[in-house]
Amino acid sequence: MIQVVAVIIAKPGQRAPLLEAFKANRAAVLAEEGCIEYAATIDAQGIPPSKASFGPDTFVVIEKWASLPALQAHAVAPHMAAFSAQTRELTESKRIHVLEPI
């Protein structure tokens, strides 16, 4: 299994529309062969902000894939290219961490 932690930083004030686009694309990703989990997360409410907090412009996508080839196919899927083009102006930066269990 391959796990991905994708830290997505929106341009200031643009997290909500970026998350809406993510939600609209999520069903297509979940339907991909080998996709086990694909979910957006934000800082938990009720927890005081700290140096480890992501902040109001960031969300983190937690992904699980059955294999590296499944993840590689996801990266070039047409709906992902469309999502990237649609959200380019809303996105400040992305950090994608591809991990495997030990």
TrEMBL record:
Signal sequence bounds: none
Entry keyword Transcription: no
GO-annotated cellular components: cytosol
InterPro entries, per the entry: ABM_dom, AI-2_Isomerase_LsrG, Dimeric_a/b-barrel
A Pfam family the protein falls into: ABM
Residue ranges occupied by any ABM domain in the UniProt entry: 2-99
Keywords: Monooxygenase, Oxidoreductase
PROSITE patterns assigned: ABM
Sections of the chain in a coiled coil: none
MF terms (GO), sorted A to Z: monooxygenase activity
Protein name: Quinol monooxygenase YgiN
Organism phylogeny: Bacteria, Pseudomonadati, Pseudomonadota, Betaproteobacteria, Burkholderiales
